[in-house]
Structure formats: C-alpha cells, structure tokens
Amino acid sequence: MKKGKRKGKLKSKPARRARPARRSKPARRSQSADKEKSSAGAFFPRKRMIAKLIQRRRRRLRRVLRKGIGPVAVPSKAAPAVPPVETPDPKKTIRQVTKRQILLCPGPVLLSLGVKHALAGPEICHREQEFTGMQEAVRAKLIHALGLDGRWTSVLIGGSGTAALESAILSAVDPSKKLLVVNNGVYGSRIAQIAKIHGIPLVEVRAPLTEAPALDRVHAALKRERGIGTVAMVHHETSTGMLNPVEAVGGLAKKLHKRFLVDAISSLGAERLDLDKAGVDLCVGSAGKALHGAPGLSFVLVNQSEVVRIQKQKPRSLYLDLAGALKSQESGEPPFTPAVPLVAAFHAALNELIKEGLKSRIAKYRQRSVFLRQGFKKLKLEFLLPEKDLSNSLTALMVPTEISYTKLHALLRKGGFVIYAGQSELREKIFRVAHMGGLLQSDLKLFLSVLKTALSR
User: Fold this and answer.
1) pLDDT tens-place string over residues 422-443
2) Which 3 state secondary structure label does DSSP give 67?
3) In a 3-state reduction of DSSP, which class is residue 157?
4) Rounded to an integer, what distance in angstroms lies between the CA atom of residue 371 and that of residue 348?
5) Which domains can be identified in the chain, with CATH numbers?
C-alpha cells in the first residue's frame, strides 16, 4: 500500500464494457406462446396501428358531422366547378318543426293525443285480419257517427278529398248523360274541371263567389237541358266560407228525377246535413277536416239504392273505381296497399266523435265561430260574406288596407298561428280563419290577441 492512502478509501477501476455478443436469429415462437402473451396483455404493434387508424377516422367523422357536409371532390380541368350546395342547419330545422303551431286552416287540423298515438302505432299488414277488421269498423262507425242508418254504406279512398270526389263523379254520371254543376266558388269549379278532364258532358250554373246560387236558374237549367243525369254541388264552399242551400237544390233534383252528388268535404262534422232529407245519393267527405282525423284519407257515402247501379258500370279509372273499392273492402281483399296508419288514426278520431256526439261537435263549432266573429268585429275587420251565409267552420275576412297578406301571415306565424290566403281572384284580398280541429278556447283568445298586435304594427 502506498503512503498517504487510507485503507478504506481506495477506488477500483471501472470494468471494461464487454462487447455485445453477436445477435442470433430469434427462435420461431409457437402459436400457443403468442396466445399466452396476448392473454397476458402483451403489446403488438399491429393492434396499436389499427387503434390509431380507428381514432383518426372517428375524429374525421366528427369534423364532417359538425360541418354538415362530406369531403368535396376536386373538379377536373375538363368539367366546370359545381358550386357548393347550402346544407340547412339540422338543429334549426328541428326547432322549427317541433315548435307548436296552432293551425287555423281548413285541413290539416290539430289532432288529439289519442289520434296521434294511433297514427304512430305498430305496423300492421293490410292483408291480415288486424287491418281488415279495423277497416270494417271504420266504415261502420263512420255511418253511425254521422247519424245514418242501414240505407247507407261507406267506401274509404286513399288520398285527399279530391280523390274521393273524382271517384264519386266517375261513378255518379252514367255514360251518355250530362252532369249539371252548381258552381259559386273554387271547389265548384273543381267538380267541373274533373268532368272536363274525363270527357263528361257538362252544364254549369255559375254564380259570383260572394253569392249563393239562384234556385230559379238551377231549375231552369234542369228543365231546359236534355240529358242531365246528375246534379253536383259543394255544401261548404271553403274558398269563401259560404254554406250553400243543399236541401233546396236536392229537392229540385229529386223532383225532376236526377241523381244528386254533394261535396261535403269540409262540412261533415261541423254542419247539420240531413242526407236523406236533402235527397243525396252520393256524399264525399274527408277524414282530415272537421272529423279530426289525419290528412290523406277520404271517403264516399253511398246510398244503398245506388250500389247496384255503380257495380254494373264499366270502370273509368283503376285506382278511383268506386265499385271496385267497395267490393274489395267488403271482401277484405285490398287490391292496393292502403294508408294503414291513416285508417288507424281515423278509427281513433271516430271513437272520439261517437263519444262526444255529432250534435255536441256541431254546437262546439258554432260556439267557436260566434266567439271569433265577435272578436273580429271588435278589431273592425270586414267580413267577405253576410253572416247569415257563413259556415260554422271558416270565416273569410278582407285584408285591411294598412297591411299586406304576406306581412300579416308572417306576423301571425311568428306568434304561433297559421292562417290561409284567399284563392283565385280573392288571393290577395282576403284571409281565411278556420275553426276546425282540436282547438281550445285559450287558443282562440290568444289568436285574437296576437291578431290585434299584428294589425296595430
């Protein structure tokens, strides 16, 4: 040991780092070893790569969904660039749809919770007993709810009231016979238009939109024109709110042995209408108006005395063949796919009408019309027609000179109410307020308040 060095303080030299041994090829692992390591949570680079790829795709998908559009392809030099299409904000659209609006239009109408529940019910096959039984119940309850008896039957037609009207016209007029149309509005003109399209010989007794048809002119036309087999008219002319004299015209038709067809699409359930007393042979109605069903389903009420005659007729249409529809519904074998949810909703609506009673429903409509018209008078609004000619289900009012219909409609819609414009020559001159559907008294009070505010702007 050298001098000056203490025994316990000697430092040893670091050992020389050994050369790494030559790497040998790894032995092939067995599949059982792989499984053991995998189950023990061993790391595999391939799994990590797949996980990262999935994360990147998820992040990209979230970006695309936030923007509302997909990746935009770069146009080639040959093809001109297509301008991007503006995609509506889905959140804004949903808010607009889900915001409750009070419909003051003559269909569609506000539905009860029971009808909505039936409309969104379980799917039913139209060729199974569940549907055919429900359809038969609807046809029977319709006759019962409207106070008719065994002298009447009903035929359901998939489509708006116009579909049932066209079906009835094609069955009501015999070949080589003429159709006399009592026309004092847009829907009277529609009957004439349908006849012209199908080449049915036509005679029209026209009256101004704001006047009831003159009975002496109807009588004169029936006496003058040879070959008239059917008379047709609208009970409630929805374009103006006028209630036409169906019983008087029906009396003239029966006196001269003519068939009588009535369009009661917007009056059944809201107005008194005795089909037997008026001498009606075919009556057209709709589920989606004063009967409080969903839109898109209509029907024809047929007097049993007409059933044999229309069954002998040669069909003029495939889908709108009234005799064919009646035969298929009575046999329970539908030739086409019917509007199953609409039939279910109508079934629920008829149950509610039967429980309420037709007289009570009509009285309710009358009370609504009186309440609203008193409010319109306080607001100094002018009626299109004399009050004696008005129906229970709709009021037509002149648009004040201080405001346009477009602005009035926009202000009322902002306040939660939807009204109707005029039609034909009255389009910009009037606005229409219907009293149909599941309206509450509070809805009517609020509407008058919102209307007052809109008119004062």
Assistant:
1) 999 999 999 999 999 999 999 9
2) helix
3) strand
4) 28
5) 102-107+358-456 (3.90.1150.10), 113-356 (3.40.640.10)
